[in-house]
Amino acid sequence: MFTWAFIFKSEDCNHEQHHTELLHCGNRLLIYGVSTIEEGAKVAKKIMEEENCLLIELCGGFCSEGARTVIEAVECKIPVGHIEYLPEAREKLYMVP
User: Fold this and answer.
1) Distance in Å from the first CA to the final CA of the chain
2) Where do the structural domains in the chain lie, given as residue ranges?
3) Which of 37, 44, 71, 96 is the most exposed place for a label (fewest CB within 10 A)?
4) Is 48 exposed, middle or buried (0-12, 13-18, 19+ CB in 10 A)?
5) Residue 42 · residue 73 · CB < 8 Å
6) pLDDT tens-digit map of 11-51
7) CA–CA distance from 37 to each of 41, 89, 93 (Å)?
8) What is the pTM of this model?
């Protein structure tokens, strides 16, 4: 079983309350909501160590510096990536309610 995770950042999220697990085709996806980059880094380290998470993807709210913080938290032991919107799509983000 391959375990990977997606961590999203949103105001008022708490990883202990805002999380779920999806099993599909023998793989396991962990999804966590956090309110700060620091909370995301702690969750990433914890799931790497305790859940045998092998890959983490971050929402665009983490930005490059936030992704670096998470990478440092997992000590570069597993791949960490983050979503990035292209400039033409970024403009549309401001129209989302």
Assistant:
1) 38
2) 2-93
3) 96
4) buried
5) yes
6) 999 999 999 999 999 999 999 999 999 999 999 999 999 99
7) 6, 23, 20
8) 0.90
Residue 89 corresponds to which tokens in the numbers above? 């799509």
Q: Decide: 13 and 62 in contact? Cβ < 8 Å.
A: no
Task: Give the CA angle between residues 19, 21, 36 to the nearest 5°.
Answer: 30
- Cα–Cα distance measured from residue 67 to residue 61, given in angstroms and rounded to the nearest whole number: 10
Residues 6+ positions from 40 with CB-CB distance below 8 Å? 7, 9, 32, 34, 58, 62, 66, 69, 70
pLDDT above 70: residue 97: no
Distance CA 65, CA 8 (A): 15
For 50-95, the pLDDT digits (tens) are: 999 999 999 988 989 999 999 999 999 999 999 988 888 877 877 7
